[in-house]
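User: Structure please.
Assistant: Input sequence and predicted structure:
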Amino acid sequence: NTTRPYPPTTLPALFEQQATRTPDHTALICDNDTLTYRRLNEQATKLARCLISQGVGPERIVAVKLPRSVELVVALYAIHKAGAAYLPIDPAYPQDRIDHLIEDAQPVLVIDEGTYDSLSTRQVPDAVRLPSARELDPRSPAYVIYTSGSTGLPKGVVVPHEGIVNRLLWMQDAYGLDRDDRVLQKTTSSFDVSVWEFFWPLAVGATLVLAKPEGHKDPQYLASLIQQEAVTTLHFVPSMLEVFLQHDAARGCTGLRRVFCSGEALSGDLARRFHTTLDAELHNLYGPTEASVDVTHWRSTPLHAEGAMVPIGRPVANTRMFVLDAGLRPVLPGVVGELYIA
């Protein structure tokens, strides 16, 4: 029984409520830039009004082609405040992939560095107002992320606010960030793990620390940033975790409280190496983009990290998992079948 009675709400509502509770707490750290919740909320509100004046609103898509930066975070939050969904586009993508995403999604606007500068300095008539939190429907799209295209052309996955909000509220119930936590944002925005990195900490009063563009590929830089900014929480795909643990600097990350893995199978050998290197929790998550990032979770401990593979675990809140045969009938325990999400 995974039923949890979470209230119907949206990502911008969660952020604005938190900004009201802790306006002077640090929300965002990026190199030498630091923004409080109040300042981030003000910047996002100003940009949201500019977006609305350009025809952005509910059920519309805004493409965001920005490197990891303060501007990227402001843009994502502004798009939600305007009631729209964001489509992340990695600026490093090949031009033909970028062209396909824009042609397929038909965004009302593409925000790149030039567009952002133009919008952020534009004067907006006082008559342009934001939708209130009550006016935004939790069933409306929050973001659109395209698949890798491994089975043909990339396919756009539309995720509503109610789906990702359920995911974030479950994550807070399970792992309990507080105002002293600092979450590292290092996943490329075009991958769905980035969604909880961007929106979980700022919905609950924690601080978001941005890695520099391409910094997620450099273990030495990551270790230094984790120590310098007192990062407590971050995500690795297992292959990158393996590279990270090979560096001596990883042992210096003593402030880490929790590390999440997803995106690839987590081996028992890697889990054992983690537990001998870091004194932090290790959580294995699994799920497809279509089901709002992750659908199962498992905490790895030194005792559990003895098998060849770490389990994907049990379903998250308001989610069920079934192992079925070719006729969609539940199989007996121990029998191989296909995994279905409900």
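The chain is about 35% helix and 20% strand.
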